[in-house]
Structures are given as structure tokens and as C-alpha cells.
Amino acid sequence: MAVNEKMGHDDDDRFVQAEVMMMDYDFLETPIGRLLLVADEHGLRHIDFPRADQGERIEQHWHRDRRYLGAAIEQLEAYFAGRLHIFDVALAAPGTEFRKTVWNELVRIPYGETISYGELARRIGDPGASRAVGAANGANPLPIIVPCHRVIGGSGKLTGFGGGLPIKQWLLDHERRHAPRPALALVP
Predict the structure, then answer these.
(1) pLDDT (tens digit, 9 = 90+) per residue, 160-183?
(2) Helix (H) or strand (E) holding 169
(3) pLDDT tens, residue by residue, 45-99
(4) What is the set of active-site residues?
(5) Is the domain defined by 1-92 classed in CATH 3.30.2350.10?
(6) HSE-up of residue 99 (Cα within 13 Å, Cβ side)
(7) Which of 80, 129, 75 has its CA nearest to residue 101?
(8) pTM of the model
(9) In which element (H, E) is residue 34 found?
(10) What is the CATH number assigned to the segment(s) 96-179?
(11) Domain ranges across the chain
């Protein structure tokens, strides 16, 4: 559902219209804490880690409802149970073309594996863009589903994560525990 708001007027005193999409939000209790999920008819837009020091970010045009969140909630629950390794939900994250390029590459990092920021920059075809890639990674509005936690420093050290480094470590450990293992085969 779209809502038109009067945002101001131009020199001819005609109103300029801006469309604000109504979005659904709800919370999901997980092993890493309560997540705030936001979606509209186009797909999932945000996953936030509400923090006590910042309060909850609920915007005026959001409505508490799970109408557009069912698939994301079901898949996140399966992920945290160790049963889901690849997400398949509609995503509608706002961002620049560069950020979307980085985020599209993030979803190609296999479950249970990590790469460096430098490797991510190489994969998008811009090996000198490690810092820009890091900034795009940090701006990812869909952590976990767009797995920015799988990107680490070149030395193998954990670096920034919106949910905090302990949560990043938890996610990596969780994926390593539940990653598919190759079947053993006897050599003839």
C-alpha cells in the first residue's frame, strides 16, 4: 500500500508528491538476540540488531504485521536451527549500485566459509577498492541473509560488524558447526 504525502511546493505553489511505502515490521527472537525485520510487498528491506543504547528504530510508516515477513522469518528460524544454508527470500534493500554489487557478491560466499575484504574487492573486479568494499559491507541492511559476517580482515582477524564482534563470531562458529561435510569415500 502506498501513501502519498505532501512534501512541499514549488514556485507555482503546486504540491510535490512523494510516495512513502507502508512497510511491515516485527521482531524475531534468535540465539543472538532479538532481530528487527522490515519488509514490504517488494521484499525484505532491513534486518536490525536493536541495541539498548540506541533504542528501537521504528519509523512512522511501519506497521507491526508479518504479512510480508513470513518467508524471511521461516528461513531465519531454519538458519538458526542449522537446517538452512542458502536463503531464498525476495530482497529489496535500498542502496547505491556499488553497494548492491558488493552485496550481490556477498551472497556468493559459501555457507561456513570466509573471505577477506581484499578478496571481495577482487571478486567485484576492483582490487584496489578494499576500503570502499568494507564501507559497503558495513552499510549492508540485511545482515545474516546477505552474509557480511563472512568477510574478515586479510590477516584472518575479525573486523567490524553491525551486531558486534561477539555476534559475528557466533554466526561464523554456528555455520562451521552446521556446514555440510563431504561424504567419505573409500579409495579402491
Answers:
(1) 888 888 999 999 999 999 988 776
(2) helix 165-178
(3) 999 986 655 556 778 888 999 999 999 999 999 999 999 999 999 999 989 999 9
(4) 148
(5) no
(6) 14
(7) 129
(8) 0.81
(9) strand 33-40
(10) 1.10.10.10
(11) 1-92, 96-179
